[in-house]
């Protein structure tokens, strides 16, 4: 009965306990989940991850997990669930390089191994776990860009194409040490990147690791220790070369080093750790760590690095030799493939250039044909236009010839008119001269008549004076004769009248002559005035006719000049055509 109860309980407990558990493994470039059996050891899970990744150089790597405030590596000989792994589901492990090679070019055989080391070391440099100078950071960044983007192509890799990539350490000192902007750093990286043309991805990653392995903090695992319980804190560094003691504020230059070839034994007791040199004359070095777990981790790293140190100095195993031979063949094949690809690429680029050249030539010929067609159309249009212009020019030539004939006739008419005008002008000038001579003669005649009128007036005045003197004498005679007549009988009245008339008759005769002379003089003066006025009118008419003739002559000269200009224009048009 008791046995039945125990077997029932065991069956019940086995039903309750799960047979598998979930695991998430994070590599440098991927995440994987596995369903593991409860009985699996650390080696079973590690081998599964290595097979999945395709990794054969398993001795460099391990599965790391977090324990409280530190980390630990999964032990291959113990079951996974029996170790201090997190109780989460799934349990997270990081597949990382646990040990680093001394010479990456000689020890790293597989391309996947190189790639995983490249990604891990790159992350450590960017996260400042490995110190790197600004100059080396730029060079390493250029190889990282070559590994990611391939050969530099200025047509494709425009400025700013690295803006989203993390290529330089995050610390401000690297970016701001030279007072350079992000664009200036990118330009500097691109300048180096352009020089790596022709380097394959695995070669660029190997060049990156070859530079990185010379950095002081490459492959070193640091632990806080104290030499004595009351001493100042120190740092212990474990790497492929040996053990190193550092000051807490300086991880670059160790104060003391213990190479693996000079260490006889390493042991620990709880928190105390002891390093015994191979030379017994040298003192044993002891230090203390904060936790027992840390001492176990230090010892685990020391054993692994020492084993690899001794392994490097021995002949490679058959497996490693086969791996190296296969890797060599693979590299040769890849190199040949790259050469073939490069030749094909060159041939393709050459063909593309030839194609582009042919397309360019085709486009050029098409443009030339289009331009020729356009030129032909323009020439045809020009020919039509020239024919039309020739027809118009011919019509214009006929019209100009007709106009030239008309102009010639007009010229002849104007020449005849000019001759007539000259003759008329000569006649008018002659008439004008004759009129002027006549006017001079009339002026002389009027002056002569005026002189004669003055003489007549003078004669009239003398006659009046003589008459006045005669009257005075007659009066004097009359007065002297009156006394004598008193003695004689008076004459009859008739006789007196007669004598008076006889005495006054000479006076009346002289008055009539004077009046007649005055009337003649006045008449001649009036005639002279009328003739002078008539001559002045004639002179004015002659002047107006002369002015009109001058105007007509000027117009004729202008018309002759215009005809001459028309002839010249016609000649020029004829020459142009």
UniProtKB/TrEMBL annotation:
InterPro entries named among the record's database cross-references: Band_41_domain, ERM, ERM_C_dom, ERM_FERM_C, ERM_helical, Ez/rad/moesin-like, FERM/acyl-CoA-bd_prot_sf, FERM_2
Subcellular location: Cell membrane
Pfam families attached to this UniProt entry: ERM_C, ERM_helical, FERM_C, FERM_M, FERM_N
Membrane topology: Peripheral membrane protein
Coiled coil: 324-473, 525-559
Highest taxon listed in the record's lineage: Eukaryota
A Gene Ontology cellular-component term: plasma membrane
UniProtKB keywords: Cell membrane, Coiled coil, Membrane
GO molecular function, one term: actin binding
Chain positions recorded as a 1,2-diacyl-sn-glycero-3-phospho-(1D-myo-inositol) binding sites: 75-78, 296
First-listed, main subcellular location of the protein, grouped into a coarse class: membrane
Annotated ranges, domain FERM: 21-313
PANTHER family: MERLIN/MOESIN/EZRIN/RADIXIN
Name the UniProt record assigns to this protein: NF2, moesin-ezrin-radixin like (MERLIN) tumor suppressor b
Organism the protein comes from: Mastacembelus armatus (zig-zag eel)
């Amino acid at each position: 009965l008791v046995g039945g109860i125990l077997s029932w309980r065991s069956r019940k407990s086995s039903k309750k306990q799960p047979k598998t558990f979930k695991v998430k493994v994070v590599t440098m470039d991927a995440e994987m989940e596995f369903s593991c059996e409860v009985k699996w050891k650390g080696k079973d899970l590690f081998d599964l991850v290595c097979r999945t990744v395709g990794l054969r150089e398993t001795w460099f790597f391990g599965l790391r997990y977090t324990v409280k405030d530190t980390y630990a590596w999964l032990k291959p000989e113990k079951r996974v669930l029996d170790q201090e792994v997190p109780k989460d589901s799934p349990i997270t492990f990081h597949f990382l390089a646990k040990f680093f090679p001394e010479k990456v070019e000689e020890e790293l055989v597989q391309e996947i191994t190189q790639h995983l080391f490249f990604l891990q070391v790159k992350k450590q440099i960017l996260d400042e776990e490995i110190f790197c100078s600004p100059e080396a950071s730029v060079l390493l960044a250029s190889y990282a860009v070559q590994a990611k983007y391939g050969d530099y192509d200025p047509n494709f890799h425009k400025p700013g194409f690295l803006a989203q990539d993390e290529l330089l350490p995050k610390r401000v000192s690297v970016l701001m040490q030279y007072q350079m902007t992000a664009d200036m750093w990118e330009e500097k990286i691109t300048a180096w990147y352009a020089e790596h043309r022709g380097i394959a991805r695995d070669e660029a990653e190997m060049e990156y690791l070859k530079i990185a392995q010379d950095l002081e903090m490459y492959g070193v695992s640091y632990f806080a220790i104290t030499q004595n319980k009351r001493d100042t804190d120190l740092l212990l560094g474990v790497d492929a070369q040996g053990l190193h003691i550092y000051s807490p504020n300086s991880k670059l230059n160790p104060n003391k080093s213990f190479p693996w070839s000079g260490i006889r034994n390493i042991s620990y007791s709880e928190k105390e750790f002891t390093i015994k040199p191979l030379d017994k004359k040298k003192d044993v070095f002891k230090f203390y760590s904060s936790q027992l777990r840390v001492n176990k981790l230090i010892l685990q790293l020391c054993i692994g690095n020492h084993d690899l140190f001794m392994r490097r100095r021995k002949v490679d195993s058959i497996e490693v030799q086969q791996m190296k031979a296969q890797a060599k063949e693979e590299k040769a094949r890849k190199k040949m493939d790259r050469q073939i690809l490069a030749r094909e690429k060159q041939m393709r680029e050459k063909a593309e250039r030839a194609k582009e050249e042919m397309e360019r030539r085709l486009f050029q010929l098409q443009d030339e044909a289009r331009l020729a067609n356009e030129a032909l159309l323009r020439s045809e249009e020009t020919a039509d236009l020239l024919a039309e212009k020739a027809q118009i020019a011919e019509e214009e030539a006929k019209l100009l010839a007709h106009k030239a004939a008309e102009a010639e006739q007009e010229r002849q008419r104007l020449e005849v008119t000019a001759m007539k005008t000259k003759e008329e002008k000569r006649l008018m000038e002659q008439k004008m001269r004759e009129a002027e001579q006549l006017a001079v003669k009339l002026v002389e005649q009027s002056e002569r008549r005026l002189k004669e009128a003055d003489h007549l007036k003078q004669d009239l005045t003398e006659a009046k004076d003589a008459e006045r003197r005669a009257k005075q004498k007659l009066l004097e005679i009359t007065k002297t004769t009156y006394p004598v007549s008193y003695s004689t009988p008076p004459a009859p009245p008739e006789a007196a009248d007669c004598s008076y008339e006889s005495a006054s008759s000479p006076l009346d005769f002289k008055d009539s002559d004077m009046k007649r002379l005055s009337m003649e003089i006045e008449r001649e003066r009036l005639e002279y005035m009328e003739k002078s006025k008539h001559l002045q009118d004639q002179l004015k008419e002659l002047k107006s006719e002369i002015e009109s003739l001058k105007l007509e002559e000027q117009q004729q000269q202008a018309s002759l000049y215009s005809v001459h200009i028309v002839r010249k224009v016609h000649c020029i048009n004829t020459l142009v055509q």
